[in-house]
Design a protein that fits this description.
By secondary structure, the protein is an alpha/beta fold. It is built from 23 helices and eleven strands. Helix content is 49%, strand content 8%. The chain starts with a helix and ends in an 18-residue tail after the last helix.
Length: 569
């Protein structure tokens, strides 16, 4: 494994340098593990790629049943499946170019080297400016966040998800669970929460954390609230189309406290300066339900986690998923399509993206198209690996592993994995079809922009909830960072559900139909994310004063002062 230069150094002057050999060996072992030359049988991150997937024998034996189970039977015969995809892409080329040539696409402008596509902002009507939802929420008082969480739990019983670590049926007290959720979710720390709270102490909270708080429990609590919202009639009013659900995801940067050493944190001079930080990657749907979130290293590409969120639960089904530039790669376009999701990101400088075709560029030039592919797709490359592409997709559908882990393994190889190359080639087809439609359809561009505004509003909401300790993570392990992040999201989802229930009651109490219509119109034109009436910071108690605090500074004037050191009378 040594190269010529290393061999020469190890055998310098005819003497074998054992220490140098060991150092080089360790370096080569490390590199080989990272690039896939050497695999670790009992590792999760560095196993052989095939070990992450359903075994080839099991897949071949049960292929028909697995494809049927996951509604993928139409993909079994590659030739007929790809013919359908080809027809769709060719039609997109035709329609998009005809609308450009006929002057119907008024937002498209051809330039000498490329093109420009403008997206007009959605204008708000006069009613939208007047009918804001905020005026219907409490104004004369501030509600306690503790009371809000308690009321939402009364409605949903989300605290039932916090089961004892060893499987015991012993249930923790609600006040301790709520205090731990606020300690984590508001970033106050459980230690501080125990010290500033009445009726509980630090040791009790520490015990609650150890035995009742896991990533799975906090995720399940969120899922209970998200599923409850699905039952509410009012939630449907937030959707553009009741049969569809437009979802989106975005990453939010958080610094790590300087005294915390975390292997999950990384450097980003742009966001953290000399500090380290992490990214909380969060998913939201049209109804503002925060249905998944994960804390990742800031140096990781967010796109690898898109599929993890889309496959997270059965409650939130996405008909179109959007993200920003960091959410997309050609691999993600390919995988989302095969898994049954429509992927529509907002790509910065998308005019610089390359188009691909089933025919040569010359073929499209001869049709007088202004938008033509850069090169022809290698269909044979996809066909040769089609069974493995389906096996990988079934692996993800079955939950055997996560997409983020597979993509990390893909990109760790020093040479491109053949399956990765085939998936990327297929993704180029799907990306091309999306770009053509994106250029042609101004309503689609506006729809994506509107949905991404929701996740950005959610990020501001996150900062308001996660207010403690300068909004810096004060926990080091990946698990505890995710517990804190899930607790924050749990508080957010609880507030959103409370708001929905509050507005529902306002509708029930409306004196007439006109008032009901005004409330519903305000709901459609505004955001259900509203929290100005909430008190996150506790209550200042002026009913009594602590003599103990005064006694800490009360000086006994009868006693003599000590003389300052080094000074004489």
């Amino acid at each position: 494994f040594l190269n010529d230069e290393e061999k020469s150094a190890v055998f310098e002057s005819g003497k074998f340098r054992i220490s140098l050999y060991k150092i080089l060996l360790f370096f080569h072992v490390s590199d080989a593990i990272k690039n896939g030359t050497l695999n670790l049988k009992y590792s999760y991150r560095y196993r052989n790629f095939d070990d992450y997937m359903i075994s080839n024998d099991d897949f071949k034996k049960n292929k028909d049943l697995l494809l049927k189970k996951h509604d993928m039977e139409h993909m079994q015969d590659f030739d007929s499946f790809i013919a359908t995809i080809k027809s769709k892409v060719e039609q997109s080329y035709k329609i998009t170019n005809e609308n450009i040539n006929n002057g119907f696409n008024t937002y498209f402008t051809a330039t000498d080297s490329s093109f420009i596509v403008k997206t007009p902002k959605l204008e708000k009507s006069e009613d939208e400016e007047i009918n804001t939802l905020a005026k219907y929420f409490p104004h004369d008082e501030y509600l306690s966040i503790i009371d809000l969480l308690y009321s939402v739990n009364t409605q949903t019983d989300f605290l039932s998800s916090f089961q004892h670590y060893n499987g015991s049926t012993k249930k923790e007290k609600d006040n301790l669970l709520l205090a731990a959720i606020l300690g984590y979710g508001c970033n106050l720390s459980l230690s501080k929460m125990g010290k500033i709270s009445k009726g509980i102490n630090e040791n009790q909270l520490d015990n609650t954390k150890i035995w009742y708080f896991t990533e799975e429990n906090t995720q399940k609590a969120n899922d209970i609230i998200v599923a409850y919202m699905e039952k509410l009639e009012i939630v449907k009013h937030m959707k553009h189309n009741i049969k569809e659900n437009h979802t989106s995801s975005d990453g939010q940067k958080y610094s790590i406290a300087s005294n915390i050493d975390s292997t999950n944190a990384g450097y980003s001079n742009k966001y953290f300066g000399a500090k380290k930080g992490v990214v909380a990657y969060t998913f939201i749907d049209e109804s503002h339900r925060l249905f998944h979130s994960q804390v990742i290293n800031v140096s990781e590409r967010e796109s690898g986690y898109v599929i993890d969120g889309l496959l997270h639960n059965e409650t939130v089904k996405s008909s179109l998923h959007s993200g920003d530039t960091h959410s997309y790669t050609e691999i993600i376009f390919g995988l989302t399509d095969i898994l049954g999701f429509n992927f529509g990101p907002r790509i910065k400088n998308f005019k610089d993206q390359q188009l691909y075709g089933f025919n040569t560029p010359k073929y499209y030039h001869n049709l007088d198209y202004k938008l033509v592919p850069k090169r022809k797709i290698n269909i044979q490359k996809i066909k040769d690996n089609w069974d493995d592409i389906l096996r990988l997709s079934i692996t993800l559908k079955e939950g055997k592993t996560t997409a983020s882990q597979l993509l990390k393994r893909f990109t760790s190889y020093s040479k491109q994995h053949k399956l990765y190359g085939a998936l990327k080639e297929y993704g180029k087809i799907i990306k091309t079809d999306f770009l053509l439609n994106y250029i042609d359809d101004v309503a689609l561009r506006q729809k994506i922009e509107k949905q991404l505004n929701k996740v950005e509003a959610s990020n501001r909401f996150s900062k308001a909830v996660f207010f403690g300790n300068n909004q810096e993570y004060t926990v080091s392990t990946v698990e505890e960072q995710n517990i804190a992040n899930n607790s924050k999201r749990l508080i957010q989802n609880a507030i959103i559900l409370w708001n929905y229930l509050y507005i529902t009651k306002k509708l029930q109490q409306a004196p007439n139909q006109k008032e009901k219509e005004n409330i519903l119109q305000a709901l459609k034109n505004s955001s259900i994310i509203y929290y100005n009436f909430l008190n996150f910071f506790g209550i200042y108690d002026f009913t009594s004063y602590s003599k103990r605090v005064y006694n800490l500074i009360a000086i006994d004037e009868e006693k003599e002062f000590l003389q300052p050191m080094g000074l004489e009378n």
